[in-house]
Predict the 3D structure of the following.
Amino acid sequence: MPDDTYAIYPSLKGKVVLITGGASGIGAEMVAQFARQGSRVAFLDFDREHGAKVAEATGSLFRFCDLRDIAALRAAIAQVKAQLGPVNVLVNNAARDDRHPMETVEPEYWDERMHTNLRHFFFAAQAVAPDMRAAKAGSIVNMGSVSWMKAQGGMPAYTTAKAAIRGMTRGLARDLGGDGIRCNEVVPGWVFTERQEHLWATPESVARTLEGQCLHRKVMPPDLARMVLWLAADDSAMVTAQYFVVDGGAV
């Protein structure tokens, strides 16, 4: 459906929204959707080329950042705050589901996967929390994965990191709730981004996935973005410490 058939949330207009991993895929769609809401959107990514294109197309603020470098992450968030103001909504989205057999994993790779898929979620939340506390309001949305819920193999470091996001989300919801800050998790199924189509989607795997879903169509980036919009908006004002699976009914 065209975008003009979906909801506009008045509470998102003018809000400062920070998205990690916004240069492609689900993240780029979220940048576009929040921009359509009239939010002041910033995103962090280490893909300079696509980041610049998304920023130009959406009128958003792009800051290059390798999220594995926490000092660089903190500096980038400080720059966003200096240019746009305190962050009202944080979407922790950046991750990579690279496949890796259990037998090949060494400690250095394991640590790098945690840095890529988990650690920056916490430190981004830590960086925006003081301003959210001062405002007595804020929404943090962490992007999880159904992979560990489905006992999916072939990427143990990734599934471990994504499982940990559930615990982090619920713990932060408790720690921050007294100041009016909400923290929730959105759990994508297999979302058919350009990367997924290029690397792993075969006619056979797509057919199996759709057959396993209650709704027999591909889950696409806008399906995730619209759930995130609702959790960011005041319409979900009493929703926190929860997770929302968007997978067409596969789990």
Notes: The helical segments are 25-36, 48-58, 70-84, 107-135, 156-177, 194-199, 203-212, 221-232. The beta strands are 16-20, 40-45, 61-64, 89-92, 138-143, 181-188, 243-246.
